[in-house]
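Open question from group meeting: does this chain pack into something compact, or does most of it stay loose? Before anyone orders reagents, we agreed to write out a predicted structure and look at it together. Recording both the input and the output here so the notebook holds the full record.
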Amino acid sequence: MSDTILAQDHGHWVEVTLHRPDKLNSFNDEMHLALRSALEAAIKGKKRAILLTGAGRGFCAGQDLGDRDPAQMDGPPDLGQTLTKFYNPLVQLIRDAELPVICAVNGVAAGAGANLALACDIVLASDEAKFIQSFASVGLVPDAGGTWNLTRLLGPARAKALAMTGAPVSAAQAAEFGMIWKTCAAPELMDEARALAEKLASGPTIGLAHAKKAIHAASINSLEEQLELEATYQKICGETSDYAEGVSAFLQKRRPAFKGE
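Structure tokens returned:
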């Protein structure tokens, strides 16, 4: 694997670290491919949770603009192709993964780096972190699902203000706005994120995956459609051995031993 990504196996879950700290973990083609490979390996390897974080003082500064220097190019880049080839499949992979994807934002998350974090299921951030939609400063629109997630998380008024001004959002503001789940003191971030990954990886994976899918569907379904979807998913989950184990453990007043089955 490329050294732009580090993957640490913790048994039922894997910790994936963006590893270009000298570039604030900004994306180049190599890191894109390595990250997608690491995530796909975790999913195909039947891991039950993924924790994503960054090395050094930042989480991810988005695209490495050193690869987009107009002085070194014959003409304008095709940024649509960059999204279609790299960012869009990455965001879709995280969204479709049938396991929890946790993000620990350890520092600045800017541009596509901010939106990569927001694509994850549960986001914890250091109290020193900031989220910046930096696209307007270079004449672009938020990508990597940014316009979609910001609008749904914040509403159009705040989404447009952040997209047009590029104003930094502190971790505390992000939690208050509902962009992320919670903030942590910087020295405690990774311990708390790893404890959460361990907890979720020991949980009823099929139930967690279907809860994730149902919540995603809620933004486009009518109430009637969502009630039908809940019934369908509940039937699936109710037939798992984890459901039987959960009920037995409750009745026997013991801790359940879920297997993700």
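Observations to bring back to the group:
The mean pLDDT is 95.
The longest strand covers residues 13-18.
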